[in-house]
Specification:
alpha+beta, 5 helices, 34% helix
């Protein structure tokens, strides 16, 4: 919980493409706790389910808030195929939750008390870079490991160019 900072400059040890999922909720009516609290608890349950089985493909995640109303998770995945497989698997909690949401929507029982959203990105190697200064492993580095900055280049341009040298399209 209180990780010690790694002295100096580091970078993420990510190799290849990076799959990033931003997923969250917005509380539209604070008084409708019975509507938005189950959504929030469902997200925690899904994260727990993924943490118990690393073969599902979630590498790491960061819980964030954008405002008192908006909460989200930045997730890093092994591949878009593993992300799709988790989202559509009938054995996983996500599938059950979306079934409930879809049934409520078809029945006209969604009342607008909570908003849901996600954005997914596949970022090709050579199209991302990272730097952390006196930070514990965070974000992409927490998901993929930490390297001394010199292993990838002291400048952002050098870290981006690494993908080109390995055959990326940067």
């Amino acid at each position: 919980m209180f990780a010690k900072p790694i002295p100096g400059r580091t970078t993420a040890a990510a190799e290849g493409d990076v799959v990033v999922l931003l997923i969250g909720m917005r509380v539209n009516h604070f008084w409708a706790v019975h509507q938005w609290l189950p959504v929030m608890l469902s997200m925690f349950r899904m994260l727990g389910e993924l943490a118990r089985d690393s073969s599902r493909g979630l590498l790491g995640r960061v819980l964030l808030t954008a405002s008192p109303r908006t909460y989200y998770v930045v997730q890093y995945w092994e591949s878009k195929e593993k992300l799709y497989a988790y989202a559509s698997s009938p054995e996983m909690f996500h599938h059950r939750v979306w079934g409930i949401v879809n049934r409520k929507e078809r029945a006209g029982k969604v009342r607008g008390h909570v908003g849901l959203w996600h954005e997914a990105y596949v970022v090709p190697e050579g199209s991302y870079e990272s730097i952390y200064f006196d930070m514990p492993a965070f974000g992409l580095a927490a998901a993929t490991g930490v390297l001394p900055i010199e292993r990838r280049g002291r400048t952002a341009a050098a870290r981006f160019a690494r993908g080109e040298a390995r055959g990326g399209d940067a």
